[in-house]
Amino acid sequence: MTTSLSPAFVRPSGRAPDQLxxxxxxxxxxxxxxxxxxxxxxxxxxxxxxxxxxxxxxxxRGKGEGWVTAEYGMLPRATHSRSDRxxxxxxxxxxxxxxxxxxxxxxxxxxxxxxxGERTITLDCDVLQAxxxxxxxxxxxxxxxxxxxxxxxxxxxEFKSVKGGRDPIVGAVAAVSVGICGGVPVLDxxxxxxxxxxxxMNVVMNDGGGFIELQGTAEGHAxxxxxxDAMLALARKGTAELLAAQQAALAGR
Amino acid sequence: MTTSLSPAFVRPSGRAPDQLxxxxxxxxxxxxxxxxxxxxxxxxxxxxxxxxxxxxxxxxRGKGEGWVTAEYGMLPRATHSRSDRxxxxxxxxxxxxxxxxxxxxxxxxxxxxxxxGERTITLDCDVLQAxxxxxxxxxxxxxxxxxxxxxxxxxxxEFKSVKGGRDPIVGAVAAVSVGICGGVPVLDxxxxxxxxxxxxMNVVMNDGGGFIELQGTAEGHAxxxxxxDAMLALARKGTAELLAAQQAALAGR
Amino acid sequence: MTTSLSPAFVRPSGRAPDQLxxxxxxxxxxxxxxxxxxxxxxxxxxxxxxxxxxxxxxxxRGKGEGWVTAEYGMLPRATHSRSDRxxxxxxxxxxxxxxxxxxxxxxxxxxxxxxxGERTITLDCDVLQAxxxxxxxxxxxxxxxxxxxxxxxxxxxEFKSVKGGRDPIVGAVAAVSVGICGGVPVLDxxxxxxxxxxxxMNVVMNDGGGFIELQGTAEGHAxxxxxxDAMLALARKGTAELLAAQQAALAGR
Amino acid sequence: MTTSLSPAFVRPSGRAPDQLxxxxxxxxxxxxxxxxxxxxxxxxxxxxxxxxxxxxxxxxRGKGEGWVTAEYGMLPRATHSRSDRxxxxxxxxxxxxxxxxxxxxxxxxxxxxxxxGERTITLDCDVLQAxxxxxxxxxxxxxxxxxxxxxxxxxxxEFKSVKGGRDPIVGAVAAVSVGICGGVPVLDxxxxxxxxxxxxMNVVMNDGGGFIELQGTAEGHAxxxxxxDAMLALARKGTAELLAAQQAALAGR
Amino acid sequence: MTTSLSPAFVRPSGRAPDQLxxxxxxxxxxxxxxxxxxxxxxxxxxxxxxxxxxxxxxxxRGKGEGWVTAEYGMLPRATHSRSDRxxxxxxxxxxxxxxxxxxxxxxxxxxxxxxxGERTITLDCDVLQAxxxxxxxxxxxxxxxxxxxxxxxxxxxEFKSVKGGRDPIVGAVAAVSVGICGGVPVLDxxxxxxxxxxxxMNVVMNDGGGFIELQGTAEGHAxxxxxxDAMLALARKGTAELLAAQQAALAGR
Amino acid sequence: MTTSLSPAFVRPSGRAPDQLxxxxxxxxxxxxxxxxxxxxxxxxxxxxxxxxxxxxxxxxRGKGEGWVTAEYGMLPRATHSRSDRxxxxxxxxxxxxxxxxxxxxxxxxxxxxxxxGERTITLDCDVLQAxxxxxxxxxxxxxxxxxxxxxxxxxxxEFKSVKGGRDPIVGAVAAVSVGICGGVPVLDxxxxxxxxxxxxMNVVMNDGGGFIELQGTAEGHAxxxxxxDAMLALARKGTAELLAAQQAALAGR
Lengths: 253, 253, 253, 253, 253, 253
Hints:
Largest interface: A-B, 35 and 35 residues
Shape of chain A: globular
Number of strands of chain A: 9
Structural class of chain A: alpha+beta
Number of domains of chain A: 1
CATH topology of chain A: Ribosomal Protein S5, domain 2
Helix content of chain A: 25-40%
Distance between the termini of chain A: 33 Å
Low-confidence stretches of chain A: 1-6
Oligomer: homohexamer
CATH superfamily of chain A: GHMP Kinase, N-terminal domain
Radius of gyration of chain A: 19 Å
């Protein structure tokens, strides 16, 4: 690893460069949704609910497939200074649409939509408090809410006709941010790091070690191959820990 | 009181007709806002944040007065079945606008806007989980968030030049719903009661026993004077208990 | 009553505290609508049309019930200074939505929607000239337009299969504003009073003396029980006179 | 003239081919606007108000010129069947925008905007009842409202510094529709004719006999030179009568 | 002709008063659309595509008729200074809607919609570069794209059951602007002329010499009969040349 | 490289796996914009214009820095089947917003905004014809339009006070897509490949070999490290060729 590049850099939080923030995944956080998880990555808190509906979007009607989609929102005062309420402004901003498209694609990557059948699962990810990494926390938490919703369907016997076990879920996904801050590759950036770093990359991986999504942006200088490699190594470590946290939460530990 | 009208009616929750649900007011629920309160009326949970900004709307510029306003939202899966996200639909519905106007008016009734000076306090009331009475919970919680924001300003010496103590706050406000269910006047309706009752009234009162807002609607049959009197008596009892709960929360009890 | 509080108060219009403005209800004001009434409360003039359509909103389809709904608008120069045209701004304001929801609820309270059958009656209330009390004038006028539309349907034999007389109409509704101005409870506030009063309440009542809607707001100080009682007494007197005016208009007097 | 083309055609209204409908121009129809005229072309009734504001659009700021603009609306039940309220749909339709642009251009043609000074006059033309020809009625009525607003300004001494009489008004404009119905050129089409005619043309002329706007549309077959000539002759006759009616109204006859 | 009115006027382009700009009609300009034509009137360049869809708008369903409609857009930097992107502003302006309604009406005038059958042809006219006359160029180019789309349908045997040759096309349409500049009637105004002229008229004609649309506007002074006659004579000459250019393009010359 | 993975895969276009499509960059494509480039990647054609304005967004006012931003659009029939016009729908879709944010960030990475001074350069990228890779073509073409706009400013002496050569441009950026199709890593995917591939990655690089943006998405299966390495190698080769094509175009070759 390339932490030798800038041995003097100290993270604002005092964490080691390859250290995640404290992660919690609280299932059953609200009572109406089929899956409801409050995910915390340190001070970032996102409420992820999974809602099951017995219909599919127009483009899928009659095809025998289901759909998984996501919506993302931020409470106006989740952030340091109050931001406009998107419902009051009358439209969702580009950042919001970009994030909810990313969450939707990431979650669809772990679902067998034919096994799901003609139903839609909507993952609502609402940020109650933001401190960097809201989209990666959202993906990580939404996965647990999604599995809970599938389990709710399974418990009602909805997948009886389908052969085999935990059906429409074909893997697990988790996401984490990595970046280069003060020349040092770091894992799971908080807001203080995120706003000052040179490069920022969000990585979505599955439990087979494959990449689902990779979104890297050079904020300061363009990043080199060795920096990319260092960031990917951190992402691999971080998502492995997050995948373990998801399994622990689902196992009730 | 007229509870003798229908002695057979039993509240779905098992509560006495004049009994509030369990009420909690958790201050400092999120960390960025100048005031942040999670209010629970039973299973109804609303996050109320107060945000201070050093500007006023155009119609008040240069008049030496401040402004207090509110915005209301409901997370899509706060309810039994998922409702559309208003930001995605591109506009706030009539019910939302009506409620946020009510919250704003109610809170302005306890503020001396000249003492506040040229700043705006925005109360964001976001429903995390709904079980009836979200607007009354929101008003009751927003009052505590508002006082916390004023205290934050006071602690920074912003009202030094104003003579006297806890300045721009000139009273306390709390709100509760009352209704006629199965012929019985009841206090603080939950969703099961609200959707089946004949009459539903939201009452906002201050700590001087005065009415700030009264909004009664006959859902089934028109209500009579004696029913109105019975409901107002319950409202007086309920708001008195809520005003006490607010003071306890603010005193750190 | 509490008129002794401020015996010196004189209404800008010179009216007695319990005196309505001159009320006229002109039926057949325009020719296309099934019901069309110009209602005047003094200088407040609202055109109320009732339109019958043989369809119901999606949530009622196939349930054998009809729907009654309302829309409210104000011509840009109905007011002292020109206000923006809502169609040009691209959305209806909160006040507009609040008023049209109130009108719709009030009128539904006098209709048997099963007797109406699967049709929708839309009450369009457009303010040609405003001088306070537009929403109460609108409700009072819309009732007459609604009855005319029902009569039009009856004349075409649409309710033949339903047993009994003036079918889907199960009562009458009228509305009036009351308030406390300069300490005096007054009936039917005009703009000069409305903009300066301490408390303003809109009351919708039926011909059985029951309350349909009650919406009171303390603009200045919170109102007390005795003030509420005085206002309700005035409202009872005012709506009784308005209900008589409606019957006279419908009888062609 | 070519009325010999189809001698058998009888107008639904029984009017002669070159006969206007009954025209009335009622000044002072509402009381708040600086100019307020109800114009009737037969059963077509349009309320035209002129509102004076002491500001100009951004593109004119600081140029010493005024602005004259128009907005057009149709009450939902001005027509045979109810049309959607544009404010509720969230946008003005193409027809509405086209008509209000036409009204604005037509009225600007009779105003010296430098003499007007840095103020805006907005002409709101709202159709209370439609029976064809709403845009031509609107232009004809808006002219009278505009002159009343200018007179109101003159009476307040606003144009004292400008030399000469009725300053910013430099002419008069009126508009009428003409068309070919059943082969016969006719003047001032009502709805029954308008919806069935082959060609429809709206002509705006000034009191000098010049053309301000000409908008002809072949609905059925393309129109020939001789048909155009016949229509223009009718338009000349019709606008001359309308210009006389405007002068009579302004003279208080 | 009346060019003697102001013999001194010289067109900025050096053209004779009755001279069109260089006109080109490039078919097959893009590859996906059923018809795709780049039309140039001098420096004005508009891409016109015709898209065939097997559905009709709701108001035509089941009536056995087709529909022809148009949409118009201007790239933000088609003009001298950048104009806002309408998609970003969230609505199409009045000018855009007016132009696309004109294009649609003009093209429908040359189509037998019953012969077309239940399909919609949408003409998208997007201005890549503007130098005056974009709407007349759009109509002229859209006609060629429309014929190409009809030919594409014919080649697929879609009109086999209909008797006769080039079926749903019942004529040709072309459009040109004319105006009075410096007192001289001129043909096909470019931007330099358009922005300074006294009168501007857009004329749509068919190959039978009939008028489809006539839209004249007095920008400076009202125009007289003799000026109208001179402009119409120029329009007749111009559209004849454009109709010939269309036929040449369609013949592959 | 890993092309041995699936030796049997043949690209629909017949290209070698590491072969770009024919690339052209036509400068001065339209005449009004300060920079105007038509970029073609095979059948994908995007018109990129750079517009200079002497103002900056509110958040930069008075900071002495400039801004570079982008807007992206697709003509309705740029694609196989017609898509809705975003201006008519009233909002830009999530994909559009995502792409224009990417273009803006990429171009800002090669600009010294302090050297640019308080002006905004807007890059409008409008797709005339789409065949895959529109966003990478847009970035590649927009760079050339941006340099032309800077050169236009330089030629007017705008950067005289700044020391040194081709000032505000501090590097070059180009973009290309790479993917895994039928198991084979391929460069510059066209539509046929894009819609069927397993993984799709857009890579933006600078002329120093650094990464500006990396956006990879697993459409089918999650991609592994070796696949990522193979794709990045192709991206390096492709962007190098595109950077050379940009320099050739700017040199007038």
